[in-house]
């Protein structure tokens, strides 16, 4: 009986296994790279001109594109426009990219830009802010347009990033020239379907279940990653989101509850990518009223700069960073975060609390025994918002200030402060344009109309800052403008117009096989994602 | 009438949930834009005008447009209703099919080991909060053991307006944990009720006479005793089914089950008043219907109720 030679058999099996795995690997490389991504919120619509909502803008921004976009360091780079010049201070000429096709095959031309410009300005949408200041768009030829501005605007390009271009023919064919109206009887086609120029096609949107995106094979650009299919699932409950990552049901989670970060770092097959978020948390104090509505009667203590400085000095920012934020925050001295144009490390230096000096300042200001007021605080909006408020209240108690903490859900909180029904409040502010003017204009400039002081709910009014903000809006000379920004930020800090606490950090967690570039505006871009 | 009262109370409460206009417009909006939107949505009109407007539209089935999503509320609810219905019905079935036999068993074999185990489970079911149970299940079955998916609804098959995941394996795998989580409280409740009723019925005269007559245990227990325990059980089960549909909110949030409960929670967080109002009115409608069905079922189950009350006096 001839027996099978075990050695030969083993060798043959080995060769077979090797060949099989080589075949499978090569198939694997050629195969689609699928990424399952989960975060907290769902999108509101697929229409790029309808709702100014962060998650919606990000996901829809994978299918639609604007004239320009940010690169990894948040500098402006060409997108649907290849170059631009300022013909005169109020006219910018953009040269549009040639040979770009929408997902349905039609060509991208200047007409589409002008159509989108008219569409985004319709009053029933909330995206007009991104073309604020643009009076008109003139067509020079099919691939050249002129943007005519009301006044010179140094940050025009930053706003244009979120001005997304829609195909005129597609919108007309599908009766979607108008943005969804609250009074309308039915959904517009554009709210449920997309046709853009972007790197991904959105194939499906099942609300609160999933969004399925697939790579655009005829995209004009080059993807830095290898992801071809993305399934985005919103998972509202924190514990469930983390459980899904631990169980392997999702590959990437970009909304992490802070208490789970340490555990995820310690998990063998997961990786935590740290990165800053462009959001600063601060406390606003009513400086406009003669008497505090919710606090000590008589003179308004917040009007006195010594009181504000004392309160700021009493806050132990390193302690908050360590114990409450578990090192996921950067103590802040100025009101814009790193990465925002205008931020500088030497302006943003903080230190430990100085209780003695704070007490002295308070006494100088006429409050040797402190005073009392109510602090309004949201409890479900920012990372550990209520705990931060509780900590700050405790720190102020050390200098004799008795603070009543009024924590509430964000819905009623935001109504309260917008009605100026608060004497002090905690708020967070993200910087969509990556330029300090955005924060200075909305928060610190005296309220007038439009975007000036539209979130200045503490009635801050400093004439010097007002003059600086007004000047920087139209100053095209970079050096001069940067100096104005620097001064305005310094005054805000030195006069403690707001008590800045920290800039948030936003880690992301993913399987070790996934890598992606971190992004500080909480808008992960799938063309930076790679799956091994 | 009930529904009108519910609508009125709901609407009054909504004055305090916060300003929907901010969540609709985002932080960039100017105060002029916000004022304009308030005007457009009719939020500046006095309360009774808004309420009358709402009721007038509601009776036509028109609930307005969601503030947050800009879509018709009736469509949103219709889209999400099958998921909640599927979950609630599965949970109700699990609770009934397990609860009644378990209740009978623990009544008949008091003190046995299995009975003690069932009673222990029912204690946990009644005392543990739903979200905790849900999270434990996810931890054990999805994270540690990896047998079942941790969230979502899985593959569904669409039949016109209805969708169901029950005929796909993927859908079945997804519904197991949420359905059991939702069913646990009802199961414990039903089990204890059936047990208590059975024990009481055992002591009644007619059961004693049936036994004295020599009828088999099986006949006595199931044909006579069990049928008589069913009347109070049906009442409770009926009400509970209504609450299953209404309060699957927590289970849906934990498991990211795309039903009406999840929609409602998100509406509360963004002060999306049309959805909240429509949801509450719908739920009160569901309760009213279920109570009607329960009342009708009484007549079939309990023969005493079929007798004309006037006629009883003639004996």
Assess the beta-strand content of chain A as a share of residues: 15-25%
- Alpha-beta content class of chain B: mainly alpha
Task: Please outline the major beta sheet of chain A.
Answer: 7 strands, mixed
- Strands ordered across the widest β-sheet of chain B: 1-2
Gyration radius of chain A (Cα, Å) is: 27 Å
User: How much of the sequence of chain B is in beta strands?
Assistant: under 5%
Rg of chain B: 24 Å
What number is the mean pLDDT of chain B? Answer: 80
Chains forming the largest contact: A-B, 54 and 53 residues
Number of helices of chain A: 16
Task: State the helical fraction of chain B.
Answer: over 70%
Roughly how many Å apart are the termini of chain A? 49 Å
Q: Span between N and C termini of chain B?
A: 39 Å
Number of helices of chain B: 14
Q: SSE order of chain B, as H and E?
A: HHHHHHHEEHHHHHHH
Key phrases:
heterodimer; A: 532 residues; alpha+beta; 7-stranded mixed beta sheet; 4-stranded antiparallel beta sheet; 21 strands; 31% helix; globular; B: 315 residues; mainly alpha; two-stranded antiparallel sheet; 14 helices; 2 strands; disordered C terminus
Quick description:
The complex is a heterodimer of chains A (532) and B (315). Chain A is an alpha+beta fold and 532 residues long.
């Amino acid at each position: 009986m001839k027996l099978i030679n075990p050695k030969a058999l083993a060798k043959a099996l080995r060769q077979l296994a090797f060949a099989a795995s080589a075949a499978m690997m090569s198939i694997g490389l050629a195969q689609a790279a699928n990424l399952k991504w989960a975060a907290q919120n769902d999108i509101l619509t697929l229409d790029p001109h309808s709702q100014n909502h962060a998650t919606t803008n990000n996901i829809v921004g994978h299918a639609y594109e604007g004239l320009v976009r940010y690169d990894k360091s948040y500098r402006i780079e060409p997108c649907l426009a290849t170059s631009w010049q300022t013909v005169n201070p109020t006219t910018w000429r953009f040269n549009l990219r040639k040979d770009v096709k929408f997902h349905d095959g039609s060509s991208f031309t200047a007409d589409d830009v002008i159509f989108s410009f008219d569409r985004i300005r319709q009053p029933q949408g909330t995206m007009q802010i991104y073309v604020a200041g643009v009076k008109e768009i003139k067509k020079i030829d099919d691939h050249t347009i002129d943007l005519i501005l009301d006044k010179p605007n140094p940050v025009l390009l930053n706003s244009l990033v979120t001005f997304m271009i829609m195909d005129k023919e597609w919108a007309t064919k599908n009766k979607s020239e108008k943005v969804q109206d609250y009074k309308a009887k039915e959904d517009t086609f554009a709210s449920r379907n997309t046709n853009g120029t972007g790197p991904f096609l959105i194939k499906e949107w099942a609300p609160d279940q999933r969004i399925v995106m697939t790579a655009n094979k005829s995209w004009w650009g080059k993807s830095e990653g290898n992801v071809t299919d993305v399934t985005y699932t919103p998972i509202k409950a924190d514990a469930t989101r983390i459980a899904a990552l631990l169980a392997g049901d999702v590959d990437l989670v970009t909304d992490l509850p802070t208490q789970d970060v340490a555990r995820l770092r310690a998990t063998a097959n997961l990786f935590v990518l740290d990165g800053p978020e462009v959001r600063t948390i601060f406390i606003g104090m009513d400086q406009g009223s003669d008497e505090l509505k919710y606090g000590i009667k008589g003179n308004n203590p917040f009007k006195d700069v010594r009181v504000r400085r004392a309160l700021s000095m009493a806050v132990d920012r390193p302690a908050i960073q360590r114990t409450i934020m578990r090192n996921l925050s950067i103590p802040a001295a100025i009101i814009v975060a790193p990465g925002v144009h205008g931020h500088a490390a030497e302006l943003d230096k903080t230190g430990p609390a100085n209780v003695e000096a704070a007490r002295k300042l308070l006494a100088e200001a006429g409050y040797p025994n402190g005073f009392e007021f109510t602090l309004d605080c949201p409890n479900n909006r920012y990372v550990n918002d209520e705990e931060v408020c509780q900590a700050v209240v405790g720190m102020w108690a050390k200098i004799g200030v008795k603070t009543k903490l009024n924590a509430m859900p964000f819905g009623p909180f935001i109504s309260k402060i917008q009605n100026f029904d608060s004497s002090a409040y905690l708020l967070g502010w993200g910087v969509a344009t990556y330029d300090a003017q955005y924060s200075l204009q909305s928060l610190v400039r005296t309220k007038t109309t439009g975007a000036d002081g539209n979130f200045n709910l503490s009635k801050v009014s400093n004439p010097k800052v007002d003059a600086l903000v007004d000047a920087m809006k139209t100053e095209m000379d970079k050096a001069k403008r940067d100096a104005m920004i620097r001064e305005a930020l310094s005054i805000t800090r030195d006069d403690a117009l707001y008590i800045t606490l920290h800039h948030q950090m936003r880690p992301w967690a993913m399987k070790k096989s996934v890598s992606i570039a971190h992004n500080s505006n909480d808008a992960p871009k799938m063309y930076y994602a790679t799956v091994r | 009438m009930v529904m009108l009262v519910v609508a009125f109370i709901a609407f009054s409460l909504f004055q305090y949930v916060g300003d929907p206009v901010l969540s609709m417009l985002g932080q960039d909006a100017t105060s002029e834009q916000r004022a304009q939107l308030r005007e457009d949505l009719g939020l500046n009109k006095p309360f009774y005008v808004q309420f009358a407007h709402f009721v007038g539209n509601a009776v036509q089935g028109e609930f307005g447009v969601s503030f947050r999503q800009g879509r018709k509320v009736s469509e949103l609810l219709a889209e999400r209703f099958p998921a909640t219905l599927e979950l609630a019905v599965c949970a109700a079935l699990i609770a009934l099919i397990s609860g009644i036999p378990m209740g009978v068993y623990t009544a008949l074999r008091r003190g046995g080991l299995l009975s003690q185990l069932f009673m222990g489970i029912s204690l946990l079911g009644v005392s543990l909060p739903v979200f905790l149970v849900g999270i434990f299940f996810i931890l054990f079955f999805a994270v540690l053991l990896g047998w079942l998916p941790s969230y979502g609804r899985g593959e569904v098959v669409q039949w016109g307006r209805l969708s169901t995941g029950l005929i796909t394996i993927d859908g079945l795998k997804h519904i197991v944990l949420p359905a059991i989580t939702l069913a646990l409280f009802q199961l414990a409740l039903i089990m204890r009720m059936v047990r208590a009723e059975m024990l009481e019925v055992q002591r009644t005269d007619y059961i004693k006479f049936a036994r004295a007559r020599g009828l088999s245990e099986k006949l006595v227990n199931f044909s006579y005793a069990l049928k008589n325990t069913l009347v109070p059980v049906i009442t409770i089960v009926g009400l509970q089914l209504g609450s299953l549909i209404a309060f699957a909110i927590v289970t849906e949030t934990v498991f990211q089950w795309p039903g009406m409960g999840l929609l409602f929670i998100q509406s509360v967080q963004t002060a999306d008043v049309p959805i909240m109002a429509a949801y509450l009115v719908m739920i009160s409608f569901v309760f009213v219907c279920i109570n009607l069905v329960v009342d009708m079922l009484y007549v079939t189950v309990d023969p005493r109720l079929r007798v004309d009350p006037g006629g009883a006096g003639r004996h």
